[in-house]
Amino acid sequence: MDSERSVISSxxxxxxxxxxxxxxxxxxxxxVTTALLAPPLALAEPSSADKETARNLMKEGDAKxxxxxxxxALKAYQAAHAIMQVPSTGLPLAKAQIERGLLVExxxxxxxxxxxxxxxxxxxxxxxxxxxxxxxxxxxxxxIPSLVIVVDGxxxxxxxxxxxGASIPAAALSAPxxxxxxxxxxxxxxxxxxxxxxxxxxxEGASEKVTIKLVPAxxxxxxxxxxxxxxEGGGKIRIESAANEGNVFIDGRAVGATPLEVPVxxxxxxxxxxxxxxxxxxxxxxxxxxxxxRVEFRPSPMDEVARHRKGLHFGGSxxxxxxxxxxxxxxxxxxxAGFVMNIGITPMFDFRTGGTxxxxxxxxxxxxxxxxxxxxxxxxxxxxxxxxxxxxAAGLSAGFVxxxxxxxxxxxxxxxxxxxLISMCAGDRRQYEISFNQGLRxxxxxxxxxxxxxxxxxxxx
Length: 461
Known about the structure:
alpha+beta, PEGA domain-containing protein, PEGA, elongated
């Protein structure tokens, strides 16, 4: 009887053990499953300082993108997107990558934007960016070229193949390799074989088959590594710029920044370079088969100045001034001071505005005819920079003007044409100007013809 009780007790204990183990296992399994299926922890919300930095970077990128400085725009957008990681920063980044010929990276960025999680309280710009990114990613699919690499002389299972230094897994070697348009170097090596390399130029949307041959090593001196190949029957264009780096386009396609060497087909090609200042130059290069055509560009003096003028800049001005009433009378003398807002549009054109306070007085013996004129106007001028150092401008001014007389006081709104016959500039990052200006003022006060010699300072940093 005691032995039977002992056996029963042991069985009960064993059953309880396994039931407890099952409960613990179930809890552990649930914990592991939850951990695996749970979404990743959200990234920390950017701080106010981060957001402000990102906004400034996006403005910088937009300005450079507008002037086709895609390299500078890409750098600014990358920094902004690294901070925010939202659709509205990812979409401009992808567009800059496309302009730089980075189609593979651009499509990856676009897919990330289109798959960005939706939030009920997100801005409308996020949804619009997702939609545009999805459409652009689809269109980009057919533009991305591919390489089909075949290794001859050694088994692909033992060969180590790399494209532009990035190794390709042996299992993926038989599949087309998506690459960006342009020149690519393929290398291959294997135990018992001499290493080999070749260079191929791939156009947008094309699929190129590349065969790379490995020669067995028999103890003799290895053959010299083959030189970088050109396109079959073609040559190369070597583009250089002695001063500033410039973005290069060959036959309308972005190929990179100077200096660079690009394989092309034999024949005539259009080579264009664009400098950060906004100036550009085109040349025709005739390439013979097996030859390298060297093309050298040099930025114009205008670009050297304009690259600092681009964008929004502020400064101040001071000028001695004189004026006469159009209906006649003695000359008035005085001075003007103001602040200047200059917007560099292109190397040739600037837009300038600001505000100017002018005070002039008619100095005559008879106090009855002495007049003090005060005006506050806002000019809007389009400036034409016809050299790095000389410019002219024309526009309109509008504001308030008053003739302070004993009886009565004439005052009211004023509008009239303004023009600057000539401006002489000096300096690049800090610009100093001396300009000769003239204008006519029409308004509710007495009309006048005025002119001044103006000294202007602009900070272009």
